[in-house]
Write a structure and sequence with these properties.
Elements (H helix, E strand, L loop, with lengths): L1 E4 L9 E7 L2 E7 L1 H10 L8 E2 L1 H4 L5 H8 L2 H7 L2 E5 L5 H13 L6 H4 L6 H10 L9 H8 L5 E4 L2 E4 H18 L1 H7 L18 H9 L3 E3 L5 E3 L3 H7 L10 H4 L9 E4 L25 E4 L5 H15 L17 E3 L4 E3 L28 E6 L3 E6 L31 E6 L6 E21 L5 E2 L1 H5 L11 H7 L13 H9 L13 E2 L1 H7 L3 H14 L2 E6 L4 E5 L7 E5 L6 E7 L2 H11 L6 E8 L1 E2 L6 H9 L4 E5 L1
Parallel strand pairs: 1-4, 1-5, 5-6, 10-11
Antiparallel strand pairs: 2-3, 6-7, 8-9, 12-13, 14-15, 16-17, 17-20, 17-22, 17-26, 18-19, 20-21, 21-25, 22-23, 23-24
Length: 638
């Protein structure tokens, strides 16, 4: 059999697939995209056996879905071929696939092809193909990675081996990123010159990211055996820009390709008779080192909580809590079973019926550095929306960026999750109890660095009053979070580069309250040193705010942090975090008193993400705690 990899999308299932069996013919509703795929792929000379998730899994039977999702590694791994359906073909898609087959197989000709004006239309067609929605799906990462033969890519009736397409995309990204030759050629072509940023950053296209990702997930031995290279936490966070329709699949779609999980169905499925479908209560997800239970009956908040707990208990104990600072969860959850949303800012009014709030320690994708966006002309591409997480990626092969808690590890016996039932919602809410201490308090907060531009008022807040002199150490180091690229120490020339940026004074910073246009300086400034420095600045400050603490430390915080919020060190977290103390409602205190049989504290904390505090990122906070005898406390974070 062959397995189909396709894009479900949000289109209604308004087509009918007629299925014949021994009892007659019955209809199954499918989407137009799937119907088109079946028409294009069906055999013309004989039977073609296709495994298709929407047809071969009873989507209404949760038990069956649990079991079948846990078998995806076998289904796609044992298929004779994976059929990748990009959608209906057109003149451009045929031109693109023919171009790859006829021209791009010869690497020696690649440099001349990418500069040939006669091939502009062909390159444009290939780039358009790379912007199709299939490339943004999270499930396809697993489906392509598990196929030992790579699969075949179909667009209408045209097809090409996945490996050929993948090689062409890799070559294009490599050459264009290094030389920008294709961009320069298309800018003067009559067809594309009026489409702004048609090529853009080609490495950020969904197809480019997918090709890079699938080529780096496994290690292949000389004997052909393939070994996963990444943990589940690493995959979920690294692939956050790839989309899912069902929020639980944020995690479930990657279980089969991680180093530390093996998917398992929550219960066995018995053959069901037509009209006799039944469901039973599913047990709670079981979390062990190698077994991770797939259970679509669990509320989404339970699935997400279990993932966070799995990461904490299986991670490096010195930075196990970094997962609460690393954006990974869908910000808005909307399914036919439940609706959930999270929030930032002060506690909102009770949610409307059918909605719940996710705990603040489940970091959602509104805080992610990048997201996929569909542009009218530029197509589907990844664009920066926030600064990079200070905690970096959970990659054991690299040193951690920071060590704010020194070598103090999280004691797993002191980590607790408590499930509450809210009067305002039928869905559960959670507290996470973790030890740490209050280091400082936010005193003042400046305007955020919108789109990575430096607000002019930051200079005064950073005590750089005379730009003819060198910037204060704490200021320029805070702008880059005291690091260069790849987590290395900040190079010493960054100080000079920071001073040089002030030589450029566009009109928009002449008045108090303006900003320094960083993007313009990078693209048009003509200084490599300044551009390198400012690219790092954008990675750090994008939509963050500059703050000063009561103990006079300079730092960076999320744009919704306010004066009075607490700066805390949590044991097992590599960076400081911001917590807001909130008074509990009377009904919450009463419920806790009954549940825990002890007198509850009158307040709890809400997490407002990670922060940078200059001079407190490498264990100095622990020394400060000891000198000042600051007691350890257990934070109830909700």
């Amino acid at each position: 059999y062959e397995a189909l990899s396709w894009c479900w999308g949000k289109a209604a299932a308004n087509q009918v697939l007629r299925i014949h069996n021994g009892y007659g013919v019955f209809g199954l509703r499918i989407s137009s995209n799937l119907k088109n795929a079946l028409r294009a792929l069906r055999g013309t000379t004989g039977v073609r056996r296709l495994w298709i998730d929407a047809v071969c899994i009873n989507q209404q039977d949760v038990r069956e879905r649990n079991q079948q999702v846990a078998r995806m590694d076998k289904i796609y791994g044992h298929a004779s071929n994976v059929c990748i359906w990009l959608g209906e073909g057109d003149e451009d898609s045929k031109l693109a696939l023919d171009f790859i087959k006829e021209n791009l197989s010869n690497a020696w000709e690649f440099d001349s092809l990418i500069q040939d004006p006669k091939k502009a239309k062909h390159w444009g067609a290939l780039i358009s193909l790379m912007k199709r929605p299939w490339f943004s799906r999270r499930w396809v990462v697993q489906e392509i990675s598990l196929s030992p033969r790579g699969g075949t890519l179909y667009c209408g009736r045209e097809s090409i081996p996945w490996q050929e397409f993948s090689d062409a995309v890799s070559l294009l990204v490599e050459v264009e990123t290094a030389t920008r030759r294709l961009s320069d050629m298309l800018k003067v072509d009559e067809t594309f010159r009026y489409i702004p940023d048609f090529v853009g950053d080609i490495s950020s296209l969904g197809a480019s990211l997918l090709v890079y990702t699938t080529s780096s997930l496994f290690h292949s031995s000389a004997g052909g055996a393939r070994t996963p290279l990444s943990s589940l936490e690493h995959l979920v966070c690294r692939l956050s820009m790839f989309e899912v329709t069902q929020p639980r699949d944020t995690i479930y779609a990657l279980l089969a390709i991680s180093t530390d999980t093996r998917p398992s169905g929550s219960e066995q499925v018995q053959p069901s008779m037509a009209g006799k479908h039944t469901t039973t209560s599913a047990p709670r997800a079981r979390l062990t080192k190698n077994l991770y239970t797939v259970d679509y009956k669990l509320p989404v908040v339970d699935v997400f909580k279990d993932f966070v707990e799995f990461c904490i208990r299986n991670g490096d104990p010195v930075r196990a809590l970094d997962i609460i600072c690393r954006p990974w969860a869908p910000a808005l959850i909307d399914s036919h079973e439940e609706k959930e949303y999270s929030h930032r800012g002060p506690p909102p009014p009770p949610p409307p019926p059918g909605y719940i709030f996710l705990p603040s320690w489940i970091s959602d994708l509104r805080g992610a550095a990048f997201e996929m966006e569909q542009h009218p002309t530029a197509g589907l591409r990844m664009e920066r929306q926030n600064a990079d997480p200070l905690v970096g990626m959970p990659d054991a092969s690299r040193n951690r960026n920071y060590s704010a808690a020194g070598n103090v590890v999280l004691d797993p016996m002191r980590l607790k999750f408590v499930r509450w039932n809210s009067e305002a919602s039928n869905y559960p809410r959670y507290s996470m109890f973790v030890p740490g201490f209050i280091l400082d308090t936010v005193s003042s907060v400046e305007h955020p660095a919108s789109n990575g531009n430096i607000p002019y008022r930051w200079l005064a807040a950073g005590r750089w009053l005379n730009t003819e002199q060198n910037p204060p150490d704490e200021f320029w180091r805070t702008l880059v979070a005291d690091r260069g690229s790849m987590g290395r120490n900040a190079p010493s020339y960054f100080r000079r580069a920071c001073k040089e940026t002030m030589r450029f004074k566009p009109t928009n910073i002449s008045a108090k309250g303006g900003y320094l246009d960083v993007k313009t300086l990078i693209n048009d400034g003509g200084c490599t040193i300044v551009a390198t420095f400012l690219r790092r600045v954008q990675e750090v400050i994008w939509n963050r705010s500059l703050m000063r603490t009561k103990r006079h430390h300079l730092g960076l915080v999320r744009d919704d942090v306010r004066p009075g919020f607490k700066i805390c060190i949590l044991y097992g977290c590599s960076v400081p975090v911001i917590l807001e103390e909130i008074s509990k409602e009377a009904y919450e205190i009463s419920a806790e008193r009954q549940k825990r049989r002890i007198e509850p504290r009158p307040t709890y904390y809400r997490l407002f993400g990670e922060c940078y505090v200059h001079g407190m990122m490498s264990g100095e906070a622990i020394a400060f705690q000891h000198r000042n005898q600051i007691p350890t406390q257990v934070f109830d974070i909700r």
